[in-house]
Design brief:
The protein has about 475 residues and is of the alpha/beta class. The termini are far apart. The mean pLDDT is about 85.
């Protein structure tokens, strides 16, 4: 009876978002650990902690014992595999934001091995990749479950009840056999203590039969073919572009325009405060600019989305879309303020003196004479900042958006996650080019026009006579 809305986000921030109320449930093959139990609550287990060592065919690495300090080991940041490699193997892994990127680096030879959840490993490996699982291991202490906020015990109880129900009616056994066909370790079963043990087939016998019947193996793909399949799968381009144009493009433009307008307004206020004669205006403006220019954009977006989000959830409906736009505006305002300040201060001091000489006050002279000239001089730089905002809108993905709210990068990311192929991300990059290249040429045109002015036009003879009339 629950209404489910799926929203994608980076795994590294998933549990914090569940704990903060951004999501009701976290579902991403999440293995429970003592540290994670301090942050969120967990349902009963629906799978056991099971992960694989994935290596290229013919690799000298045949098991976890072969991993050493010179081995480049891929893991997804924040996962139990990351913790296993760091704390148990005492090695320093190469950390990636998601499973698809980690596997792509393994195929391209950038890493030597990949420690991954078994389900992700088996789903990622395709015939001809030249990749295989060399060893599996599991942990009974840390099972796989759904993450829920600790205070939301009714939802945990409902999910546990539903898990027991699908085990009892055979649904669990059917899904488990289709998707993760492996034997349950002795002493472990899914669901609550009172749940029945699912009736599963003899997976070992089925695997042995499959190995006997599968005598033909596909030859590994060439490097060029792997590159083509990974980045230039034209069928995925055709699949990606309708959603990129229909969903991603409008949301990217909305985020860029809204944050650009707010950032320009706030940036002008910062510029005026930054050159003010009053230190109580000048100092806060400088501190604000230093902080927002010094922090990475992702940190600002997470601080606003995850920090401010729970405070204003009644206003936003717990939807981070507009908080993302505000975060981009705050980030852009620090840069735009400096652009405006440099433009205003580049206006010759004589302009202000001349305005004061004809009776303007300081505020009038700045508002009517100096600032308009300064803004005109920095229009190309402002356009460049707007182009940067279009690209920075992709960082809103870290907050987790509904399917209808996703910008270009998030749309490509979704299809990338579904297929394990990087072609949708390249398609999203091409969509960004369609936006930014025309704007770049517009910036160059504005810059040339500002430098050269309007082209001279011949003066009409009658107009010439009018101008010179009376002169002798």
């Amino acid at each position: 009876g629950l209404h489910v809305e799926f929203s994608g986000t980076e795994f590294a921030g998933l549990l914090a978002q569940v704990s903060g109320g951004r999501f009701d449930v976290g579902s991403s093959n999440i293995t429970t650990t003592d540290a994670r139990r301090q942050l969120v609550g967990f349902t009963n287990g629906y799978d056991f902690g099971y992960f694989s060592l994935v290596v290229p065919n013919g690799s000298a690495i045949t098991g976890f014992s072969d991993l050493g300090r010179a081995t480049r080991i891929a893991v997804v940041q924040g996962t139990v595999q990351d913790e296993f490699v760091v704390n148990q193997l005492r090695l320093n892994p190469v950390k990636f934001p998601d499973y698809n990127t980690a596997y792509a680096n393994l195929k391209s030879g950038q890493v030597d091995a990949w420690v991954a959840p078994s389900a992700q490993a088996e789903g990622a490996i395709k015939p001809g990749d030249g990749i295989s699982v060399s060893q599996n291991t599991f942990s009974l202490d840390n099972f796989v479950g759904y993450a829920v906020a600790k205070h939301n015990q009714p939802l945990i109880d409902a999910l546990n009840s539903g898990l027991d129900a699908v085990i009892a009616d055979g649904t669990y056994a059917r899904l488990y056999s289709d998707w993760v066909p492996r034997e349950l370790p002795p002493g472990w079963k899914p669901g609550s203590k009172t749940a029945t043990t699912p009736q599963l087939p003899d997976f070992a016998a089925l695997a042995a039969d499959e190995r006997q019947g599968d005598t033909e193996q596909k030859a590994p793909k060439s490097t060029v073919q792997q590159l083509k399949d990974t980045f230039f799968d034209w069928s995925l381009y055709r699949k990606a572009f309708p959603d990129l144009i229909k969903t991603g493009l409008p949301n990217t433009l909305i985020l860029a325009v809204v944050s650009g307008a707010l950032g320009t307004l706030l940036g002008m206020l910062l510029a005026v405060a930054g050159i003010s004669r009053t230190r109580w205006l000048r100092w806060p403006a400088r501190v604000y600019t230093d902080i927002f220019r010094g922090l990475p954009a992702v940190v600002i977006i997470l601080l606003i989305g995850l920090g401010v989000g729970p405070v204003v959830r009644t206003l936003t409906g717990n939807n981070p879309y507009w908080l993302g736009a505000v975060a981009l505006a705050l980030l852009a305002s620090a840069y735009i303020g400096e652009i405006f300040r440099s433009g205003i201060q580049s206006v010759e001091a004589g302009q202000l003196e001349a305005a004061r000489a004809i009776g303007f006050g300081y505020r009038q002279a700045m508002t009517l004479v100096v600032i308009p000239q300064g803004v005109r001089r920095v229009l190309p730089a402002l356009m460049n900042q707007f182009i940067a905002l279009i690209k920075d809108s992709s960082l809103i993905y870290f907050l987790g958006l509904l399917a209808t709210q996703r910008e270009l990068f998030a749309v490509g990311r979704d299809l990338n996650a579904q297929t394990g192929n990087l072609s949708p991300l390249v398609a999203a990059g091409l969509a960004y080019l369609l936006l930014t290249v025309p704007l770049t040429h517009l910036v160059n045109y504005i810059d040339r026009r500002m430098r050269a002015g309007r082209p001279d036009r011949p003066i009409d003879p009658i107009e010439t006579a009018t101008i010179t009339e009376g002169r002798g």
